[in-house]
Design goal:
Blueprint: E1 12-15, E2 20-23, E3 31-33, E4 44-51, E5 60-64, H1 78-84, E6 88-92, E7 100-102, E8 108-110, E9 124-127, E10 130-133, E11 144-145, E12 154-155, E13 169-177, E14 180-187, E15 190-199, E16 207-211, E17 216-222, H2 230-241, H3 244-247, H4 254-260, E18 294-297, E19 300-302, H5 304-322, E20 330-334, H6 339-352, E21 363-370, H7 379-394, E22 400-404, H8 426-429, H9 440-444, H10 451-463, H11 467-489, E23 493-495, H12 500-513, H13 519-523, E24 526-527, E25 534-536, H14 544-553, H15 574-588, H16 592-601, H17 631-643, H18 669-674, H19 693-697, H20 702-708, H21 719-737, H22 745-748
Parallel strand pairs: 20-21, 20-23, 21-22, 23-25
Antiparallel strand pairs: 1-2, 2-17, 3-16, 4-13, 4-17, 5-6, 5-16, 7-8, 9-10, 11-12, 13-14, 14-15, 18-19, 24-25
Helix pairs in contact: 6-14, 11-20, 12-15, 12-16
């Protein structure tokens, strides 16, 4: 019996007595070999039993002189990896053009020269290893008797069976020519001619190699030699004479039909034996060669001590190289309770402790922002989660602050910064370590007192149709709270626990959402969009795996807090879907996130000098100042046409007098002037007039325009955003009124 060798790629599972190879996941690490070396003239035949959509490329097959019994290190792919290792002759099976040949120099060329078929043209194929019926080489399930007299000959009623289709049968063999050999492909009963010559077969045994790659999901070995079991012989004969549709009509038990139908396993159906646990070989530390306790990447094994040195050095080097954080500087550290922020907090604690070889010199303060209102958590649930996070923060002895996300709706209110310590807030402002409260929950009961703001936040989020828009708005409000507290408490830096995996997801998400101009700021070590406060990400070079392993080895506690995408389908938002894609790819290719991050580091965004050139929501650079011939202007014109009927159309509808386009939010110039509290001299300080959607859109970047385009009333936005937009509008009007009195650069010279 011909079988697959038990040594194979990590994504392969062998079934049915090692005669079926099934790729469980991904499209790589799927190499399989024949159990025994092939003899001259012996045909190794496999059938494609299952395909999987969503991949490119198809099965690779060929010969190799590498012995799988030696357990050599398997590459990811047969092409080009195994081929480049030498002593291997491998080709990709394609839908057409499979007649290719390697010349003596190893180059690929067309194989259209005349050749003699090794399988002949009779019903019985004669080979040096034995004879078999020609029908075994043909696609199973596509054969019908050539006549009704019971003849043993068969013909193909359909000529469109592609080599990559399910049911296609592909064979490999080699023929000796003097001191060398040539390899032959046999696809669906047709000899494709020599595909490789000058193979030094005397230099080592030749094993068949099959890479279950790309769309090919499962292959089965077809037994051509020896005596088949009665069970398999009966199944093959029944399937030769019966179509899949007629198979269900046979008067056979259900289990027997399932046995007969294994060639027609549908995508998504489970296939048999229980998965065997993988045997992991013991690794040694790449630094000290002690027994390794973890592997960060494929070849990076560490013992516990070396891993701690590695992580600590990476953290301190990120801070030291930037030279942004000065001695004695106050730094606000964002704590969310997740693995990454907990890892960052522990690294800061260790760096400031007496055990540190070289102590960190900045003064940290901690802040936790409760976002329970966004997921409808009750007051008791929010209280419980805040208590858990607060207990973790207070154990550090650093100043602690607690904020609720709904406070971003009323940032203008005085004294909205709430301290969560049992001692007064004055101790924080003086930089002294607070006393641990005897009953932190008692203090937290005074915290959730923003019922009006919470209702406004829920109303705003419910007005947004997509979860993607809600995630972006929550992110902007969270950042606004961080910067606002940093301003009030005198912190010049804000430190966040964003790891490389999270930033890689954010990079791709930003590009997908139209925030390409913001990628450099959102993923860089230092985000300088705010003039006097810098956001830094000291663990941006840590992978999520390194973060998790650090927390496990140091028993670092973390707190799980649900978000709006918790337990949601992968496609609920762009960021959630991107996260699924990146983490899935990272599991198969450990360099995925590092490659994405290196690409992101090449991007650069010019910093805007004035706040008028920044988005009113995300504070990113405005990317909407484009010429009239741009795609954005065309979209704006199309939207204006669809809303307006009898008014004069203008690409600059944000500056037109009838900017509402017929909706109820339109305010004429006279109406606006009637609401002005000044005297027409630009001294207007009124905040009571409502903003139109066009006025708000004019101050937003492209992505934030998409965020609020479906908002029924833009005046539901947080107060600080509306005030910023109103101030910009007043400045524009004042500048227009006094423009004729201003000196231009030419006149000043």
């Amino acid at each position: 019996m011909t079988r697959f060798h038990p040594y194979h790629g990590q994504n392969i599972r062998l079934l049915h007595d090692n005669m079926v190879a099934y790729r469980e996941t991904s499209f790589a690490h799927a190499l399989t070999f024949s159990e025994k070396p092939l003899r001259p003239g012996e045909i190794f035949l496999v059938e494609i039993e299952k395909n999987e959509r969503g991949w490119s490329g198809h099965m690779r097959i060929g010969l190799t002189q590498f012995n799988p019994a030696d357990h050599f290190e398997l590459p990811q792919y047969a092409l080009p990896d195994l081929h480049n290792m030498g002593k291997s002759w491998i080709f990709a099976v394609t839908k057409s053009h499979n007649k290719v040949m390697l010349n003596e120099e190893g180059d690929t060329e067309n194989g259209d020269e005349p050749y003699q078929s090794v399988i002949g043209d009779t019903d019985i194929v004669q080979t040096p290893q034995g004879s078999f019926n020609r029908s075994l080489l043909l696609p199973l399930g596509k054969l019908l008797p050539s006549n009704k007299s019971g003849s043993n000959s068969y013909h193909m009623p359909k000529k469109n069976v592609l080599p990559t289709d399910v049911g296609s049968r592909i064979g490999i063999m080699y023929k000796v020519n003097g001191d060398t050999a040539e390899m032959r492909f046999i696809i669906n009963g047709e000899d494709q001619g020599p595909c490789a010559r000058y193979i030094p077969y005397q230099g080592g045994n030749l094993h068949a190699v099959v890479d279950v790659y790309g769309t090919t999901k499962q292959v089965r070995i077809i037994q051509l030699y020896g005596v088949s079991t009665l069970q398999n012989a009966c199944r093959d004969k029944i399937l030769q004479l019966t179509s899949e549709e007629d198979l269900n009509k046979l008067p056979l038990p259900k289990k027997l039909k399932q046995f007969l139908r294994y060639e027609f396993v549908q995508e998504g159906e489970d296939i048999s034996p229980v998965r065997k646990e993988k045997i992991v070989e013991e690794r040694t530390c790449m630094k000290c060669e002690k027994t390794a306790v973890l592997v960060t990447r494929v070849n990076d094994a560490f013992c516990r001590e070396c891993f701690m040195v590695y992580v600590t050095h990476k953290f301190r080097a990120a801070i030291g190289k930037s030279k942004l954080i000065r001695d004695g500087e106050s730094v606000l550290v964002g704590v969310s309770g997740c693995q990454a922020s907990s890892c960052l907090l522990h690294l800061i604690q260790e760096g400031l402790s007496g055990r540190a070889h070289k102590k960190l010199r900045f003064k940290p303060g901690l802040i936790f922002i409760d976002e329970g209102a966004t997921v409808g958590m009750s007051a008791e649930e929010r209280l419980a989660s805040c208590t858990q996070v607060l207990e973790v923060m207070e154990k550090t002895g650093f100043p602690c602050y607690l904020k609720a996300l709904e406070q971003a709706m009323e940032l203008d209110r005085e004294g909205d910064t709430t301290c969560t310590q049992s001692s007064d807030c004055e101790s924080d402002q003086q930089g002294r370590a607070p006393n641990t409260p005897s009953n932190p929950a008692h203090n937290l009961t005074k915290f959730h007192q923003y019922d009006k703001a919470e209702e406004q936040l829920k109303t705003l989020l419910n007005s947004l149709k997509s979860v993607t828009a809600k995630e972006d708005l929550i992110k902007s409000l969270r950042q606004k709270i961080l910067l606002d507290l940093a301003h009030k408490e005198g912190y010049s830096k804000v430190m966040l626990g964003d790891c490389s995996t999270r930033l890689a997801v954010r990079l791709l998400t930003d590009i997908s959402e139209g925030r390409g101009a913001h990628v450099a700021m959102d993923t860089a070590f230092a985000d300088t969009r705010c003039s006097d406060i810098t956001i830094v990400r000291p663990i941006r070079d840590f992978s999520s795996k390194e973060v998790a392993m650090y927390n496990i080895l140091n028993n670092v506690p973390s707190v799980f807090i649900p978000t709006i995408t918790t337990k949601a389908p992968d496609s609920v938002s762009i960021e959630h879907l991107t996260e699924k894609f990146v983490t899935g790819l990272q599991a198969e290719y450990p360099s995925t996130t590092s490659n994405i991050m290196r690409t992101g580091e090449k991007l650069h965004t010019e910093k805007k000098n004035t706040s008028e050139k920044q988005c009113a929501i995300c504070q990113g650079p405005l990317d909407t100042d484009v010429p009239l011939s741009s795609a954005l202007s065309a979209v704006q014109f199309s939207q204006t046409v669809s809303r307006c009927s009898s008014v004069t159309l203008s690409l600059y509808s944000t500056e037109s007098e009838g900017c509402g386009g017929g909706d109820k939010s339109c305010q004429s110039k006279e109406e606006k002037e009637s609401e002005c509290c000044g005297r027409g001299d630009g001294s207007c300080q009124s905040k009571g007039s409502k903003l139109t959607q066009d006025e708000v859109m004019a101050t937003l970047c492209y992505a934030c325009r998409l965020l609020i385009k479906d908002l029924d009333d833009v005046n539901k936005l947080p107060r600080h955003i509306l005030n910023d937009i109103s101030q910009r509008q007043r400045r524009v009007r004042m500048k227009t009124e006094i423009e004729e009195f201003l000196l231009n650069s030419a006149e000043t010279t």
